[in-house]
From TrEMBL:
Pfam families: VanY. CDD domains: LD-carboxypeptidase. The lineage of its organism: Bacteria, Bacillati, Actinomycetota, Actinomycetes, Micrococcales. Residues 38-75 are annotated as: Disordered. SUPFAM superfamilies: Hedgehog/DD-peptidase (SSF55166). Residues 125-253 form the D-alanyl-D-alanine carboxypeptidase-like core domain. Keywords: Carboxypeptidase, Hydrolase, Protease. One of its GO terms (molecular function) is carboxypeptidase activity. The keyword Cytoplasm does not apply. It comes from Cryobacterium breve. The keyword Hydrolase applies. It comes from the Bacteria. This is D-alanyl-D-alanine carboxypeptidase family protein.
Length: 281
């Protein structure tokens, strides 16, 4: 093959390669409006992902930029409404009664007291909702442990609380009595929502050691599931004003007891942002 033929073939290859490069540059940099105006161009040919001002996107571009599927909705978890029930009305199951928050009126008596059908020392009465919860609580304890609970004390009227408090003052003096017995008109027992629970047969009844018994331990871990709060914890004397009472449980309803358990808050005063009540005013 002669040198002229080889040279001609090489020159043709260079021209073809150069044309391909030029076409690639043209397709990448020339706006659609210009490219489609040139001879042999078809609409949309040579358009880049970025359009020049005034260019109309091609169907392919529209499909590429259009969102696909529906946006995932953000689930909003409702906040617990701490004002859903009154903290002052003695008829409310959220009423907060302590040394700084006496019942109004002082001689309040619940209108819906019923006898509580559980083993007892003194025949118990509670408000109907609290009574039903106690029955469920006692039944669950026996089913899980094979042991029994009994009611030690429950509703006490204003006149009864007068007698109980005066007896404690006579036996131990007022300073000591105020750490263990509520003054008349400030007792949770008067609301019909509080119950003192003991083991059956009795073991450490109304004593701090009840907290270490199988009954006291189970109640401390499970009473919240049935709407009850261990009202006077050992580490909250400065808040509640009362010494540790592992036997005293206050009915507040399952929604509130669950919320307090989840939050790790153990007193009504702290949960509702109310002042501590270590002493009477």
């Amino acid at each position: 093959m002669g040198w002229r033929r080889i040279t001609a073939i090489s020159l043709a290859a260079v021209l073809v390669a150069g044309g391909a490069v030029a076409i690639g540059f043209f397709a990448t940099h020339v706006p659609t409006s210009v490219a489609t105006a040139l001879p042999g161009a078809t609409p949309g040919q040579g358009a880049s992902a970025t359009h020049a001002p005034g260019d109309r996107p091609t169907p392919t571009d529209a499909a590429r930029s259009a969102p696909t599927g529906s946006p995932t909705p953000i689930a909003l978890v409702p906040r617990f409404d701490k004002a859903a029930r009154s903290h002052d009305d003695p008829a409310s199951i959220w009423v907060v009664v302590d040394k700084d928050r006496p019942l109004q009126p002082a001689d309040y008596a619940p209108p819906d007291l019923v006898a509580v059908p559980v083993p007892h020392v003194w025949e118990p009465q509670l408000r109907r909702e609290a009574s039903d919860a106690v029955v469920a609580l006692f039944a669950a304890f026996t089913a899980e442990t094979g042991l029994q609970l009994q009611s030690q004390s429950s509703y006490r009227s204003y006149p009864t609380q007068v007698s109980v408090y005066n007896d404690d003052v006579s036996a131990h003096g007022q300073a000591v009595a105020d750490t263990s017995t509520a003054r008349p008109g400030t007792s949770e027992h008067q609301t019909g929502l509080a119950i003192d629970i003991s083991a059956l047969p009795g073991n450490c009844s109304l004593e701090a050691c009840f907290g270490a018994t199988p009954q006291g331990t189970w109640l401390a871990h499970n009473a919240w599931k049935y709407g009850f709060l261990l009202r006077y914890p050992a580490d909250k004397v400065a808040v509640t004003g009362y010494a540790y009472e592992p036997w005293h449980f206050r009915y507040i309803g399952i929604d509130l007891s669950t919320e307090m358990h989840t939050d790790g808050v153990t007193t009504l005063e702290e949960f509702f942002g109310l002042p501590a009540a270590p002493t009477y005013h």
